[in-house]
Design a protein that fits this description.
Low-confidence stretches: 96-115
Number of strands: 0
Distance between the termini: 42 Å
Structural class: mainly alpha
Mean pLDDT: 80
Helix content: 55-70%
């Protein structure tokens, strides 16, 4: 997987967990229950963009986070396949990813003078 997409996946995981107020230990325990093998410090390092993890471990973290989220209020954390598909569709770049994250939260862009 492209390093840019891996960094984007980590950033989206971090932002979503922060917004949902889900702590690192809670994520890590759920991740282990799903078969994850990285240690708690490795997961925290990945979440904060300091360490890389293999695709399988990143996807397990996304899955673990998604099982902890209240979908009414928080966007889903993308898997590596979700991000790769978006890249193939031409939605590459931080601006496109941020726009997608805003749509996931139900945010809408408004123009001046709109009701």
């Amino acid at each position: 997987m492209d390093d840019t997409l891996a960094r984007e996946q980590a950033a989206r995981l971090h932002r979503t967990l922060e917004d949902a107020r889900i702590g690192g230990r809670r994520l890590w325990v759920r991740y282990l229950a799903l078969g994850g093998t990285a240690g708690e410090l490795e997961v925290e390092g990945y979440r904060h963009g300091c360490l890389d993890l293999p695709v399988r471990q990143r996807d397990l973290l996304a899955w673990a986070a998604n099982t902890l989220l209240d979908r009414r209020f928080h966007p889903r954390v993308p898997s590596s396949g979700d991000l790769a598909g978006a890249a193939r569709a031409g939605a590459v770049g931080a601006g496109a990813a941020r726009a997608g994250a805003g749509r996931d939260r139900g945010e809408r862009a408004s123009s001046a003078g709109a009701d």
